[in-house]
User: Fold this.
Amino acid sequence: MKILGRKTSINVRKVLWLAAELGLDYEHEVWGRPDRDPNVAEFLALNPNAFVPVLIDGDFVLWESHAIMRYLVEREGRGPVPADIEARALMNQWLDWQGSDLSPSATYAVMARVRKIAGWDDPERIKQSLAGWTRHMNILENTLADGRPFIIGDGFTLADISIGLQVYRWTMIDGDVPEMPNSLAYLGRLLQRPAAAPWMMPATP
Amino acid sequence: MSEPIVLWGRESSANTQKVLWCLLELGIPFERRDVGGKFGGLDRPEFLAMNPNRRIPVIQDGSLTLWESHACVRYLAAKYGAGTIWPVDLAERAIVDQWTDWVATDYQNGWLDLFWAFVRTPPSKRDAARVADALNWTHRTLKVLDARLAESPYVGGPAFTYADIVSGISLFRLATMGIELPPVPNIDAWHQRLRQRAPFRQAVEINYDELIGREVS
Assistant:
């Protein structure tokens, strides 16, 4: 099995973290700018969108980080996906929320104030992105206020991987942001997992 | 007899149309309640208690309250559509899942943003740069989708699945919003196949005059 992508990508780290949770053996191939441009025929044949991560499992090729995570758990027949259909639906709800609400709102601020990539320096867009990210963090903060250890309740699921990585990025923002005590305590619980810590390091925010 | 599923969301909402179409395909009893857009109600405490993210659609099925349109579609498909719109085989379903996620993370950020920038924004306030960005995004992703549909008749593979629902709701608006699109013959053929399904016509071919020039959600 091969996992393709660069560790600076939050979406690649979702899959790498899960692989560590499951104790999977895999080869890691670095793809993605600036290390290795995916806009080449060899990569586009795997994923026409030129996005990482990509999973190659024998003859089977799969992309989109959340689809890969769901596939790996079901393939192994074990891992952080609830068996109960309603709990699984809630896990998927929060996965989708990370992918289509939380993460897009944060993108510009991540580039400007977390990864500090040159060219992402429009003050108005940084302000807008931080405002959107804060609004979504408040939803997380309020959801965790009832004392639940993980996002859907007592059990660790795939949704905690995706949201946890995003909360780690929040802690790495260069600048003043509102305090989010529930979210930081949640991140602390996640960081206690041996499989989690390597994917939340200052070198790869 | 259990209570019917409740779908919260106005029928002119693109994301609500995904769940509406899915329910109609599955043929399960449901009630739809208008909220959002001209109906308002997203800031009411009762709504925020269901969805703190303040968006439609939301479904209630027995004790479960669920939001995020793709999570709703996946849940309904898994519970009521195993073997029909929800492939049982893991590898087949993973590909359906992949394209479903792609709609949320890539495709929809093009065409739906174009709809906002071009249709929902009044001409006097239109931002030409935003329209151009959204148009570029739409063209790029339409080409990816068209190439996918050159190799299989449906987005997820040989048969109609929930991946067709989440992507197919774009077709009516793309065809009617008055923007020139690149030639996409495979998408056009797929559109014609989908139009033969009554649930598509009923859930997706919805007049959206009420959204023209209306910038608030």
Observations:
- The interface with chain B takes residues 48-49, 51, 60, 62-67, 70-71, 74-75, 85-86, 88-90, 92-93, 95-97, 99-101, 104, 139, 142-143 of chain A (CB under 8 Å).
